[in-house]
Design brief:
The protein has 400 residues and is α/β, with parallel strands linked by helices. The chain has a single domain, classed as Alpha-Beta Barrel (TIM Barrel). It contains 15 helices and eleven strands.
């Protein structure tokens, strides 16, 4: 079989090279969003699609395990070398306050501590990483071969267990620190509205939630509708005045789990001008895998947080893997339903216990590009999914 394997590898590399070599169609009034190969350690001067990933939980490793993102994190999905090897030009680092780890009165200060830790990581990179606050800064960094770091807050509970006025003030502080999206809920409901992950799944957007969304849009913070209840999704998509993002959600038509989005939701996001960023979690790609993995999550609830997480990782590795083609199925379906202008990438790296086969970490992203091109996704559409759509939504939210 070695010759067959070599042939398959050669074909994959050829497809990836095709995807990397075709420039995206320019948007009126904007520059073409590609980055030089030198930005990934090469020196050919050729361009590759500018890749923006809207969600990674590597912040948790940096803050709570003392991991060194710059020198490398063994076993992690993401670190600087993997980011560069996979052509990831911009990464949103999730600022996620786990309620089981942090008392409610400390939610907001914990979020600030995580942001400070990531700023420290950037400073330690000696110019290889830079915080970006705008789409333009992402482009400029990529043109210089510098990987961009952006912030997204996962869950409105991070605003703290305080008055509504103080929560709005906390939002403004987070925006000033560089936060560019906030997921309205995590798996826990909060004063903004209901979550898909608890008994608030029948609750929609509250009056306070409407005021908060108004303030987010004035501050240039994208409204992220991943994790929210179905009623909250529909209330919010009707209420917002700017394009939304779903930073890490896949297709419910292909994997019927509450965290995913229906085709009707995909079409609504397209009408809004927003984008849905596919999640690489095998449990969100394949409902049968999710059913097999569910007992593992149930068992970890009685364990310490980190030990329980390691156990789920170890046991998930023994499950039959979900193939890379299944992730491509979701992306292709979402393109077919919403259009190529409204699909993006939100890996959830280091926040998921397993990944699809052949996509073990961020360095393997060319394999996904090759699979999508093999499936008929045009290089121009690949550019949109890879990063153009996320930057367009980010830029739309920067406007007054």
């Amino acid at each position: 079989m070695p010759s067959l394997l070599a042939s398959s590898l050669a074909s994959s590399l050829a497809l990836a090279a095709l995807a990397w070599s075709v420039p995206p169609p320019p948007r009126p009034g904007s520059m073409i969003l590609t980055a030089p190969s030198a930005g990934r350690g090469g020196d050919s001067g050729e361009s590759h699609p500018l890749l923006v990933d809207t969600h990674a939980d590597t912040t948790q490793r940096i803050v709570y395990q003392g991991a060194n993102f710059v020198s490398g994190i063994p076993g992690a999905h993401l670190d600087l070398s993997k980011m560069r090897a996979g052509g990831v030009d911009a990464q949103f680092f999730s600022i996620f306050v786990l309620p089981a780890r942090t008392p409610p009165d400390s939610y907001f200060t914990e979020a600030l501590a995580q942001i400070e830790a990531v700023h420290g990581m950037v400073a330690a990179s000696h110019g290889r990483l830079a915080v970006a606050r705008t789409a333009g800064e992402v482009r400029d960094n990529a043109a210089k071969g510098i990987q961009s770091v952006l912030f997204g807050v996962e869950g409105g509970h991070a605003l703290g267990n305080v008055s509504e006025a103080k929560q709005l003030a906390h939002l403004a502080r987070l925006a000033s620190e560089g936060v560019r999206y906030m997921t309205l809920t995590w798996t826990n409901s909060n004063p903004i509205g209901g979550s898909s992950g608890d008994d608030g799944d029948g609750r929609g957007l509250t009056e306070f939630g409407e005021r908060l969304v108004d303030r987010m849009q004035k501050l240039g913070v994208m409204v992220d509708l991943s994790h929210v209840s179905d009623p909250l999704f529909w209330d919010a998509i009707r209420y917002v005045k700017k394009p939304v993002i779903l930073s890490h959600s896949s297709s419910r038509a292909l994997a019927n789990v509450p965290r995913n989005v229906t085709d009707a939701m995909l079409r609504a996001v397209a009408r809004n001008g927003g984008a849905v960023c596919v999640n690489y979690n095998p449990a969100f790609l394949d409902a049968d895998y999710a059913r097999k993995q569910a007992p593992l999550w149930a068992a970890m609830r009685s364990m310490p947080i980190d030990a329980g997480w390691r156990r789920v990782q170890e046991e998930s590795a023994r499950l039959p893997p979900v193939p890379l083609s299944r992730l491509a199925d979701h992306i292709v379906h979402m393109i077919e339903v919403a259009g190529a202008d409204h699909v993006c990438l939100g890996s959830d790296f280091d926040g998921i216990p397993a990944t699809p086969a052949s996509l073990e970490d961020a360095s393997k992203m060319p394999a996904l590009a090759a699979e999508l091109v093999r499936r008929g996704v045009t290089p121009a559409d690949l550019h949109k999914v890879w990063g153009l759509n996320t930057l367009r939504v980010l830029e739309a939210n920067e406007e007054p």
